[in-house]
Amino acid sequence: MSPHGTVAARPLTWLDDDERMFRDAVREFARAELAPKVREMDEKGVFDAGLLRQFFELGLMGIEIPEEYGGQGGTFTQALIAIEELAAVDPSASVIVDVQNTLVNNALLRWGSDAQKRAWLPRLARESLGSYALSEAQAGSDAFALSARAERDRDGYVLTGRKLWITNAAEAGLFLVFATVDPAAGHRGITCFLVERDMPGFTVGRKEDKLGIRASSTCELILDGVRVPPGHVLGEAGKGYKIAMETLNEGRIGIGAQMTGLAAGALRHARAYALQRKQFGREIASFQAVQFDLARMATDVEAARLLVLNAARLREQGLPFLKEAAMAKYFASETAETVASRAVEVFGGVGFTKDYPVEKLYRDAKIGRIYEGTSNMQLATIAKQLLAEPDLR
């Protein structure tokens, strides 16, 4: 209560007891269990299978899945807390949890039939990684210029085509694959299919050798006459566009959380180094130029976190959040790249080497402005929403 007897507004960054306990548990795990393996995973370009099992054991892969399906019964904000805390240590680990929770699980929760939920949500919560397969060679920012086809026959659908840049593909057991059942219908022909890894004709192809988030698998998918029964259509035929748009709008908040966490991790490393590195007989943190760099970094991280939490609270209240999600994703991605770059500069020459973690965070930051909608696409969304409003507040 406020001094005037009214209920005080809850600050965006204020976490309740459950959220704080959850944040602290994820933070402790990330620093104690994840951090020692980050460099090796980055060099090998492979995520540690034991860590992935721990993600499931800790409940990080089914945060919003109801308890009746074996999940945690948590909130969207809790999912973002996990994404941010993991990203502060390793953005590769973070995006694995992000895609699982904000894209795959949420799509099934919202659009899945009772039978699909019973079949897949317990597995996604406890043991099976999910993957979201929308992008193609000619369908990047023009996301719905799909060439993957789904032809109907008396037994269901037959899928043909290729998907590119698919996150989690090397380890996933379930793929949400978008294909068109009627090219003449445009986006109204796009349909989402639940494709299991062992279906005949389905192959996970080449794994990309990437600049950053190297431990997170990004692969090609090959659909060579994959037969999918009618019960594996998510939602209904022709609703794939709506499913993709709604899940991606939420997923962008997740990427905002990932990039905020990355920036927060870079700031933490830069601050610690500035307090112990000495030049001219004193810690470099005592120099105003370094102090100003740290101050700018901290301000940008706080602003990014506020944008992410604002979009999340709007989503949880059932309020419009399209513009706010785009703002969060855009600003947090820009912030991650800028803050990671400044962190490298605070470290100086050693920051440019692989012996210190900021070099990796700088490489990891670049993807934030590209995947799940480029920065330019976010700006276009923001502008469209802004110009459609009757007036500005």
How far do the termini sit from each other? 27 Å
Shape: globular
Q: What does the average pLDDT come to?
A: 96
Please report which band the strand proportion falls in: under 5%, 5-15%, 15-25%, 25-35%, 35-45% or over 45%. Answer: 5-15%
Q: Kindly report the oligomeric state of this protein.
A: single chain
How much helix is in the residues?
A: 40-55%
Largest sheet: 4 strands, mixed
Number of helices: 11
- Radius of gyration from the alpha-carbon trace, in angstroms: 22 Å
Strand runs, count: 10
Low-confidence parts, pLDDT < 50 over ≥5 residues?
none
Trace the largest sheet across and list its strands. Answer: 1-4-5-8
Which series of helices and strands comes N to C? HHHHHHEEEEEEEEHEEHHHH
Structural class: alpha+beta
